[in-house]
Specification:
This protein is 38% helix and 24% strand. It has 285 residues and is an alpha/beta fold. A seven-stranded antiparallel beta sheet has the order 8-9-7-10-11-12-13, covered by helices on one side. A hairpin with a 2-residue loop joins strand 12 and strand 13. Helix 7 crosses helix 9. It is elongated and about 60 Å long.
Length: 285
């Protein structure tokens, strides 16, 4: 049996977003080693570096100078995080942007920037990797057939920036489930984003459902990240996915495999930019 090699990564940005990745990253002990941390606040950077037994890197140049670095997890927020990810993208095998910027207009040139970085910058679309959404993809392939419509409820947020982020995630989930949906058929009413293959047949969200998916041979309603109900003909099945991994853990697993040289699909910044542009159009409609 082949032994999986140890993946070496660095972390850029040690604020609030980084705190949400600490516990999932710990699940990969023995498979990954954090060899460097970088942050604009020197005192915070030095404290985290000492605790992790890692190099305290004062800037991006210090990160890319590390021999054998496999990947960088960028937790720095906003346009600064995007700039760091793009700068690193062409010089490190894998880069994961944990929190994309929320200013859609400011990143209009994002896809071109990512192309210049050789397509190595990936985005942590957490919603699409929730257990229930991954199970939906399995049901589409194995039982229910091609999607004809989807409805996604936008999560509430007291923060206006959070509302924008949640709208982009909702659009991404809808497009992810639908495959490659046609340009038309999109709408946003209140807190619900919908797409229908036939614009004359709007999708009605199931009561209390976060996601409603209509397929050729059945219907699925997602109640939460780990609860769903699917119907196929006369059969109705309720599923609980409490034992499944959370979205951050799944994303880290894919990122580490990609950093190790694997050809593992992960959303790129181009995917985020497309979802963000569509979200902006729906928000303005």
């Amino acid at each position: 049996m082949a032994t999986r090699r140890l993946v070496t990564i660095a972390v850029r940005g040690l604020g609030t977003e980084w705190g949400s990745w600490v516990e999932p990253l710990a699940e990969f002990e023995g498979r990954v080693r954090t060899v460097a941390v970088s942050d604009a606040v020197a005192a915070r950077r030095d404290v985290v570096a000492r605790r992790a037994g890692a190099f305290s890197a004062p800037g991006l140049a210090a990160l890319v100078s590390i021999v054998g670095l496999d990947g960088v997890l960028v937790c720095e927020a906003g346009l600064a995080g995007l700039a760091a990810a793009v700068s690193l993208g062409g010089r490190v095998p894998a880069v994961l942007l944990a929190r994309p910027p929320l200013d859609i207009a400011a990143v209009a040139g994002g896809p071109d920037m990512i192309s210049a970085a050789n397509g190595r910058v990936h985005v942590a679309f957490r919603a699409r990797y929730e257990p229930s959404i991954q199970r939906l993809m399995e049901l589409i392939a194995s039982r229910l057939g091609r999607p004809t419509g989807v409805s996604v409820r936008i999560d509430e947020s007291p923060d206006p920036q959070g509302v924008v982020s949640n709208l982009v995630e909702a659009v991404d989930v809808a497009a992810y489930l639908a495959g490659t949906p046609e340009p038309g058929g999109w709408s946003c009413h209140g807190r619900v984003v919908t797409w229908s293959r036939d614009p004359d047949k709007p999708v009605e969200a199931a009561q209390g459902a976060a996601v409603t998916l209509i397929c050729e041979r059945g219907v699925v309603s997602v109640r939460s990240a780990r609860l769903l109900r699917w119907q196929e003909g006369d059969r109705t099945v309720d599923e609980s996915l409490e034992a499944d991994r959370d979205s951050r853990t799944v994303i880290l697993d894919l990122f580490l495999r990609r950093a190790a040289g694997g050809l593992v699909p992960l959303p790129t910044f181009d995917d985020w930019a497309k979802a963000a542009v569509l979200a902006g159009r729906l928000n303005d409609a």
